[in-house]
Design brief:
nine-stranded mixed sheet; five-stranded antiparallel sheet; 12 helices; binds zinc ion
């Protein structure tokens, strides 16, 4: 029988074992992380599952079903330093509980696999989604080869100590050969569900991101001697542009952030010569995202012309949106409604392992459970016990629906 209270107790036990007064310390590729892994391994040993570690260091527990086609339930035991007690490990321990419930019954119609992805957070070496991007095939070993931790140790050397050869990490892709669906429960890490007063949401996908540096160039000129209508002021242009960015995001029903803004070479007694800002635009739909970028570029050129300055855009980072699977979204919504009465639909602003799995073409969906005060990656991260309980029940219902769906679809 599904026992969500056991999941909550196990989360507390794991926090005792791998955290301290500053929070969770399960940073990947450390002894504490290995201790968390060993603890989960001990729980899995009581179940009729095959456990293996793949070439990227991901842990897989497989419960064989009538069909080899597999429903994957994923999460990550690793945390940031001084992290929260739920981010990532709720997913793994809730999945463990679902696996126990299924293992008690008849052989499931489809194979069920729990995966604990290696190094989702990327805390030690500054690159996230190591294990899932290796499995999806998007990992480029060259990008990781030269990474060092804060003590100067090289990533390939540290990973070798955990049995992972960087150059073979992509072989983890074979784990997805029979994957027919991927499910992930996660804390929301934001304030939306708390504001709505709802415990659970179905996640529609992860945002596409377009991040640029936008630079306005004007003319340095004396603050006292230059009349207002004769200035070529890049700061004024940037200020207008920031507000236009907010308008464009609002009209697109999405988000845009200017996280940094500076006037290099500026002094207090002159119009600044340059003003540059980071401009991060996101949307769940790639076409809408491109429309947002296009409109912002047009607006920046119009403002530049009106202010007598020049504007240039430089791409800093971009990733395409990863919409989740429509049928799995419906199953997740139904599972949540059956558990707590109503479900919210929302995109994920943060990236998750699920985005990598979706990129590999595997039908994917996520569920979010409410985060109190929207906090995560801190020891203050928390979720009400009754909401954690509901999240395990909803994940279990989603797993049951997905197993039936996978079995009916056939090979
Ligand atoms: Zn996480």
């Amino acid at each position: 029988m599904l026992d969500p209270a056991r999941t909550v107790a196990e989360l507390r036990e794991l926090q005792e074992l791998t955290g301290n007064s500053d929070g969770a310390q399960r940073v990947c590729w450390t002894e504490t992380w290995a201790r968390a892994r060993a603890w989960v391994g001990g729980q899995l040993a009581a179940l009729p599952v095959d456990v293996e570690i793949d070439e990227a260091g991901n842990l897989w527990a497989t419960l064989a079903g009538e069909s080899e086609r597999a429903v994957l339930i994923g999460g990550h035991l690793d945390s940031v330093s001084n992290g929260g007690w739920l981010d990532g490990c709720l997913n793994v321990l809730a999945g463990l509980e679902v696996l126990r419930r299924i293992a008690e019954g008849d052989r499931p119609a489809a194979t069920v696999r729990l995966v604990d992805w290696a190094d989702e957070e990327g805390f030690r070496f500054g690159r996230s989604l190591f294990g899932s991007s290796a499995a999806s095939g998007s990992l480029q070993p060259a990008d990781f080869r030269g990474l060092r931790d804060s003590e100067g140790l090289l990533l390939p050397d540290v990973l070798a100590g955990y049995g992972v050869e960087l150059d073979r990490a992509l072989e983890a892709g074979s784990q997805l050969a029979n994957a027919a669906a991927y499910l992930e429960l996660h804390i929301e890490q934001g304030p939306v569900l708390e504001r709505l007063g709802l415990p659970l949401a179905v996640v529609l996908g992860t945002y596409g991101v377009e991040r640029h540096i936008v630079r306005f160039r004007g003319q340095r000129a004396h603050a006292g001697a230059t009349p207002m209508d004769m200035r070529r002021d890049p700061v004024a242009a940037a200020a207008r542009f920031v507000l236009e960015g907010r308008r464009i995001a609002g009209e697109a029903g999405s988000v845009t952030t200017v996280g940094t803004i500076s006037a290099p070479g500026g002094i207090v007694t002159a119009v600044a010569p340059v003003c540059e800002l980071s401009f991060d635009q996101r949307h769940l739909d790639d076409a809408s995202l491109q429309a947002m970028v296009g409109e912002a570029k047009e607006v920046s050129e119009r403002i530049a012309a009106e202010e007598g300055v020049e504007v240039e855009w430089a791409v800093q980072w971009r990733i395409e949106a990863r919409p989740f699977h429509p049928e799995l979204i419906d199953f997740a919504e139904a599972a949540i409604v059956e558990t707590v009465g109503s479900a919210h639909r929302m995109p994920s602003g943060a990236l998750h392992d699920a985005a990598e799995v979706a990129k590999a073409g595997i039908p994917t969906v996520m569920m979010f459970v409410q985060s109190l005060r929207g906090l995560s990656h801190t020891r203050e991260e928390d979720t009400r016990t009754e909401d954690l309980d509901a999240s395990v029940r909803a994940l279990d219902r989603l797993a049951a629906k997905t197993i039936d769906w996978v079995a009916q679809r056939g090979p």
